[in-house]
User: Fold this.
Amino acid sequence: MSATTVTEVRGFNRFYTRILGLLRPKLAGSAFGLTEARVLFELAHSEQLAVADLRRTLDLDAGYLSRILSRFIADGLVEREPSATDGRQKLVHLTGRGHAAFAETDTLQADAIDRLVAPLDEGRRLELVSAMSRIQRVLDGDRQTAGGLVLRAPEPGDLGWVVARHGARYAAEHGWGTGFETLVARVVADFGERGDTTREAAWIAEIGGEPVGCIFCTASGDPDTAQLRLLLVEPHARGAGVGSRLVDECLRFARRSGYARIMLWTTDLQTQAREIYRRVGFTLDRREPEQRFGHDIVGEYWSRDL
Assistant:
């Protein structure tokens, strides 16, 4: 790991703990510290928990958790009893007083977050939540499953996102210049101006409320042939079936719209996309060396019957 990565992560941790007040002895003005509040949270969302399961869930030292539970028991917040099925296990649950203490703490935390985000408009709040979701996915090592994927029609702001993400991704991955982003902007603008919802469509892929991909199905020069365009999947969502779901949706729409065939243009650099096209029945019609976007590339034309 590079020294820069370590420095940036540590800097973020310092900022995060300061801005949320996690270093303060008591959380959000409550009677409990951060770890104590987490214990209350887990118990409040379970009728009864084995102490060993609670320790594993929170990844706490057994002695540390035992001291917290002993204090809660002494304060009348928690009751502990042996398991009826396993004498080696101890079960814990909140008392009525414990539930009341959790409810008060939970309200204080919610109010603190409300104050934190109050200066942000709705767009910045969505940006904040999306960034948090992305951090969680990356650090969990979760490659995402198609079950958490939502495909939807573009909403206000999405067409601009398509242009921006294509420009940024292809510049980062292939070094393509602004000529490519200009081409994408032209395709998107033409699509929006035509507004032909019977023969053309676009989809935004979302995971956890965050846009992670897109695809367009547009008319081509041949009235019987649709064109698949602007397939993009963000790097952190690749390998989760997002691209395949987008392509499948595009093919279904093209069939429903009465097209007999569908075609696309790509390059030999888009290896993952080409594999998806091949898997769903596209065949390579021809390859043409070109000089575009500041580079020598090999353009490819693929098509298949519907």
Notes: The longest helix spans residues 96-117. The longest strand covers residues 295-305.
